[in-house]
Write a structure and sequence with these properties.
By secondary structure, this protein is α+β, with helices and mostly antiparallel strands. The protein has 17 helices and 27 strands. Helix 6 (about 220-240) crosses helix 7, helix 15 packs parallel to helix 17 (about 575-605) and helix 16 (about 550-570) packs antiparallel against helix 17 (about 575-605).
Length: about 600
């Protein structure tokens, strides 16, 4: 069997690496380049181009050229809503039913990604002279379950067994960290063409432990390109009376010019953008763009990285002053404004002696080497980025696996029946950080049938969540009394797009206090209902001739239950909590009074 390769399936560019003599090495493609543009194009005669050729012909063939497919991973939006955007921007939508229409045919993000992977596989086989059947593929840390499954599926379509999915920041840390002998706290700042990830890791003694991850799967170089496209279009309209939005060809060429200008502005303080003659009506039309103007136009995009960065530091419980190193990953980290932001937030000069475009693939190759037995004394401990759990009575979200839990992991929790004689329960699987179920993401739902009929609270149901090393989720529910089992593999095919995940995390922080209070209100209401049921059961168990003490205590409990009902109708947390505490104390007295009366009666009967 051939070697296991490492693949960075990137939004803008992709790369392949393998282990050679104990070191990870980039595999050049058929064109002799280290990076392969993540671009697929279709010619009129159904020929297909992937990589540099596809990118080169894009301006002449814009409606049949697909860029940035990674950004479509996980979206459910219909591509026909914005065909031009589909052609120019698609890693964000993997794992979705979002179709890309090219001519008379439609393609899924999985199919387009598979075409890129097929080229990477073929180029690696040609260079290494061996058949390639297995690969480690990297994904953004904030890819959800649906997007991860879609990435594996794309690998399978391309003829690859995906032996492991690795988060991109974690892969980068592997590439940087093999020479580290003592523990280091490392922040990995990964800004690529379509996604932004930031992670905190502890590295040392061969262990790479992810402490926390955060990010934004709808933030990257594509957003900077689009802003520069808008700037150029306005400048050429105002200064040269040239409309660059006239057709798809002009739009595609403008985007290429914007991308090239952005790259030049990383090293130069200004650059000149010259239109091709077919766009400028045979005139020499040019505008000068300064770095300052570009940074001002994109300042809001840059600031969108602040929230995830501050959140990951908070989640990891680490002060920036205690960071040992900051590592930059992704071509966009060459932008001076991004580097200044990193230093502003961490106080540390970023460390980047490895090409940020290649470091993820190099790290993936190291993980491939670990799995192949070529690399020893390296242990990778990753985490799950979002909490997982189920909906319980009252619409509450019961977390079973908390976010930033190291994976692989298996966690379980016991639940019971909410109604008398219940023979079926609906298991609503959720992912998110909000306290109420409707505010989180539905991953899947299934039913557990043939539960033994029991009074309310009598059943014993165990729900088990299992996350494997690739970050994918399996859920099972078991009736422990009947040994009835139902298991599912969470497909999450209809998840909201990844930007919803980002929005939900922000909302969970902004609405933490109100969410917790609402949860407390629901829990208090449920507690009140249970106490009333308990009171009714105790009163029903008193017998026909309770003594005076029992009767007085029961009357007090019934009055307490009346106050609980009034508190439930009122809905104020403080009143419900107070009424519940009072009734709970009265029920304990009633229970004791009943038991004492029964013991006294039993003793009298024994004497008689």
């Amino acid at each position: 069997m051939g070697p296991i390769i490492g693949i960075d399936l990137g939004t803008t560019n992709s790369a392949v690496a393998y282990m050679k003599d104990g070191e990870s090495v980039i595999v050049p493609n058929m064109e002799g380049d280290a990076l392969t543009p993540s671009v697929v194009a279709f010619a009129g005669d159904d020929r297909r181009w992937v990589g540099r050729i596809a990118k080169t012909q894009a301006a002449a063939n814009p409606d049949r050229t697909i860029f940035s497919i990674k950004r479509r991973m996980g979206s459910t939006r219909t591509a026909r809503e914005e065909l031009a955007a589909v052609v120019s921007s698609i890693k964000r939508r993997m794992g979705s039913d979002n179709m890309v229409k090219v001519g008379e045919r439609t393609y899924t993000p999985v199919e387009i990604s598979a075409m890129i992977l097929e080229k990477l596989k073929a180029d690696a086989e040609a260079y290494l002279g061996k058949s390639i059947e297995r690969a480690v593929i990297t994904v953004p840390a904030y890819f959800n379950d649906s997007q991860r499954r879609a990435t594996r599926e794309a690998g399978a379509v391309a003829g690859l067994e995906v032996v492991r999915l690795v988060n991109e920041p974690t892969a980068a840390s592997l590439a940087y960290g093999l020479d580290i002998e003592k523990v280091h706290s490392v922040l990995v700042w990964d800004l690529g063409g379509g996604t932004f990830d930031v992670s905190i890791l502890d590295l040392g003694d061969g262990v790479f432990e992810v402490k926390a991850v955060n990010g934004n799967t709808k933030l990257g170089g594509d957003d900077y390109d689009q802003r520069l496209v808008e700037m150029l279009a306005q400048r050429f309209r105002n200064e040269w009376d040239v409309d660059l939005n006239i057709d798809a060809t002009a739009k595609r060429m403008t985007r290429q010019l914007a991308e090239q200008a952005k790259m030049r502005l990383s090293s130069d303080t200004e650059t000149q953008v010259v239109l091709p003659t077919y766009l400028s009506r045979d005139r020499r039309c040019a505008v000068t763009v300064t770095r300052d103007a570009f940074e001002q136009a994109t300042a809001d995009i840059t600031e969108r990285m602040v929230g995830p960065a501050e959140c990951v530091l908070s989640d990891a419980g680490i002060d920036p002053i205690n960071l040992d190193r900051v590592v930059l990953v992704g071509g966009m980290t060459r932008v001076p404004a991004v580097r200044r932001l990193v230093k502003r937030l961490t106080g540390i000069e970023p460390y980047g002696h490895i090409d940020p475009d290649k470091v993820v693939a190099l790290g993936a190759a190291i993980q491939a080497g670990v799995l192949a037995g070529q690399v020893h004394n390296v242990t990778l401990v990753d985490v799950t980025p979002l909490s997982l759990g189920i909906e319980t009575k009252g619409g509450l979200f019961a977390r079973i696996i908390h976010r930033n839990t190291p994976i692989p992991t298996t966690k379980s929790k016991l639940f019971t029946n909410a109604e008398d004689d219940q023979t079926m329960v609906d298991i609503h699987v959720l992912q998110g950080e909000r306290e109420l179920a409707p505010d989180n993401i539905t991953l899947d739902r299934f039913e557990l049938h043939d539960i033994e009929p029991q009074p309310r609270g009598g059943a014993r149901l165990e729900v088990v969540f299992d996350i494997d090393a690739n970050g994918m989720v399996h859920v099972s529910a078991v009736d422990l009394q009947q040994e009835t089992v139902k298991r599912i593999r969470v497909e999450a095919a209809c998840q909201p797009p990844a930007d919803v995940v980002e929005r939900m995390l922000a909302e969970s922080r902004n609405k933490m206090e109100s969410d917790l209070r609402r949860r407390e209100e629901i829990e208090a209401a449920l507690r009140g209902e249970n106490l009333i049921l308990a009171m009714e059961k105790l009163v029903g168990d008193m017998g026909e001739t309770p003594n005076e003490t029992v009767c007085q205590t029961a009357e007090a409990a019934e009055n307490g239950a009346t106050e609980v009902r009034a508190a439930l109708a009122d809905g104020r947390l403080e009143r419900m909590t107070s009424a519940n505490e009072t009734l709970e104390a009265q029920l304990k007295k009633l229970d004791l009074a009943i038991k004492t009366a029964r013991q006294s009666t039993a003793a009298q009967e024994a004497v008689a």
